[in-house]
């Protein structure tokens, strides 16, 4: 389940890159990619969710 989430998360994070809006996912203002990289984002992400 975790692998499926990570693959889905990567897919979602790279959508703005594929569209040419940004060069890397963490540059997209509304992306949670920044939070997963330890950078501040617009909202706090609950990383304790396990999906099980």
Automatic annotation (TrEMBL):
Superkingdom of the organism of origin: Bacteria
Stated name of the protein: Uncharacterized protein
Alphabetical GO biological process terms: DNA transposition
InterPro entries on file: Transposase_17_sf
Molecular functions per Gene Ontology: DNA binding; transposase activity
Organism: Thiobaca trueperi
């Amino acid at each position: 389940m975790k692998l499926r989430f990570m693959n889905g998360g990567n897919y979602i994070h790279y959508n703005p890159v594929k569209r040419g809006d940004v060069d890397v996912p963490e540059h997209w203002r509304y992306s949670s990619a920044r939070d997963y990289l330890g950078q501040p984002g617009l909202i706090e992400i609950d990383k304790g969710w396990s999906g099980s």
